[in-house]
Amino acid sequence: MSQQETVVGQQALRQRLRADIVSGRVPHALMFTGPEGAGKLAVAVELARTLLCQHLSPEGEACGVCTSCRMAAKLEHPDLHFAFPIVRGTRIKDAKDATSDHYIKEWRARVLTSPYFDLNDWLSDMGAENQQAAYYVAEADNIRRKLMLKSNQGGRKVMVIWLPEKMNAETANALLKLFEEPPAGTHFIMVSQEADLVLPTILSRTQRMLVPPLTPEEHREAHPPKDESLHMELFIELMRLAYQRKVGDLREWSERLAAMGREPQKAFLGFCQRMVRENFIYNFRLPQLLTLTPEQEAFSRNFARFINERNVIPLTGELTRAQNEITQNVNPRMVFFDLTLKVIVLLKQ
User: Fold this and answer.
1) Please, what's the largest Cα pairwise distance for the chain?
2) 85 and 194 belong to one structural domain
3) Which value, to the nearest 10 degrees, does the dihedral of the CA atoms of residues 163, 169, 175, 177 take?
4) Beta bridge partners of 161
5) 183-193 burial, b if ≥16 CB within 10 A, otherwise e?
6) Residue of 63, 68, 82 lying closest to 4 (CA atoms)
7) Final residue of a domain: which of 186, 201, 220?
8) Is the domain of 131 the same as that of 195?
9) CB neighbours (10 Å) of residue 243?
10) pTM of the predicted structure, to 2 decimals
11) How many domains does the chain have?
12) One domain for residues 264 and 334
């Protein structure tokens, strides 16, 4: 796959970035933000590869054939670095040694397969679906060490940081001086899914750039269907039990959800938000705006009428609130059971 083929859509943004490269206006610390699935990492990787190209076109496009482009295409350019949240697991015994380098092979394989993935996919690659991925202080030392070295190819150095919101204050503060006074020719490209959770000390030192959502057609191209059968099964069960007001069964449902890891819980609540939106739009008979699978569409034929202008916003709000509370380590049993009670009320509106 060529560099141009790794990014779906986003033509206006990519053109702007190329123009910035030509004019020398690319900031030394840039953060891509925007909705999930928009391709922020794909855009970031393309920008990194372009910055490293030795023979840019007058329009700011990477040549794709120079030595730097060939190495960057494999994500093995010595001046292209990545940092991403990891789990300790059995691979890393000591927190002082907890850096992204331990998972770089898995990272390259995942990004090269498709840069359109989420944290749950990455946790699965690390064999840690029910653990919390994070940045450790050792990562800050690792980043500083790499970027203080002289450029291997005599050009720019690029550090792509995925999900900086997973940094704690100690890790972020250890990088502040580097963000403020980076070595010459160094670029930080950050990719954030929840920019509001990024520490202010980092935000204040970066230029944020919004990656807009993909069209439904582009989304289908970038995101081949996943096996969402478990999420769909849990969603259907929640809605049916809530409609029937079976509080006892809903408590048992809440217990099952509480036993899942935090990231799977957040992923499920994100799935529920998407299903509420899809079912609301379903009522307008505009299939070109939907991204439902055949199985999901079969359920929506009968369920969509229960999602209307009176409850679509409150339902989405409650799901978002539950997702935020899970992020903040609120007791999941309380979060999910409270959510089920809210859904009972809202489905009747």
Assistant:
1) 67
2) yes
3) 140
4) 83, 190
5) eeebbbbbbbb
6) 63
7) 220
8) yes
9) 14
10) 0.74
11) 2
12) yes
- Boundary of a domain, candidates 180, 202, 220: 220
Using alpha carbons, select from 242, 250, 234, 229 the residue that is nearest to residue 306. Answer: 242
Same domain, 280 and 309: yes
Q: Residue 293: give the domain boundaries.
A: 226-347
Which CATH number goes with the domain that contains 287?
1.20.272
Residues 134 and 86 in one domain: yes
Q: pLDDT 10s per residue in the chain (349 long)?
A: 334 458 999 999 999 999 999 998 999 999 999 998 899 999 999 999 999 999 999 999 999 899 999 999 999 999 999 999 999 876 787 878 899 999 999 999 999 989 999 888 898 888 876 678 899 999 999 999 999 888 887 788 999 999 999 998 999 999 988 988 888 899 999 999 988 889 888 898 899 999 999 988 888 888 877 778 899 999 999 999 999 999 999 999 999 999 888 888 988 999 999 999 999 988 888 777 777 888 898 999 999 999 999 999 999 999 999 999 998 889 999 999 999 999 999 998 6
